[in-house]
Amino acid sequence: MTNLTYVGLKKRSNNYSPLALAETLSFDEAFRLACDMLKNEEWDESLQEYATSLLEELRKNNQEKWNSSWKYDALLGYAYHIILKYDERYVAYKRAFDNVAKPPPQLLIAMARCCIAPGKPPITEEEAILMVKEAIKTTPYVEGVELLIGLYKSTGNMKEQKHWKTVLENIKENGHHLPLLDNIF
User: Fold this and answer.
1) Which secondary structure element, helix H or strand E, spans residue 46, and what is its range?
2) Phi, psi at residue 63, to the nearest 5°?
């Protein structure tokens, strides 16, 4: 971690462009800085937008390193999710999805959430349901079950909604929580 305080992160973002940091810091240093800015203690939107721009620059300027792991695009998708860039979120998650042989549960659920977007979402609720069920077939993650409940409510399937509410009640207290995309590194 860069261990910069909120003030230190703000100072960096005010004094340097994302491109300048991407070109002067090592990939790993710039990536850690972007992660710190994304999860800043004040949840400052301007820092989150800056972090997203820095991640975009790292992607453009370090294609080989970036493409070495699905996790980079997954984190970029998560950044877009935070700053409410829905189309970009889907595209980044899709690149991550296409860059891994067996998508892990957190990526499946992140992709499934792309059905929740303004306008015409890039995936349907039915596709999202299939992704979530794949994500939780081995381990019923609380977040996945909660998403299924919402999806079944949205589609009007009361029988499945009731079933998954019962599952949630049974796992809520001691259930497994999904590893978050911002903690995959």
Assistant:
1) helix 45-61
2) -55, -45
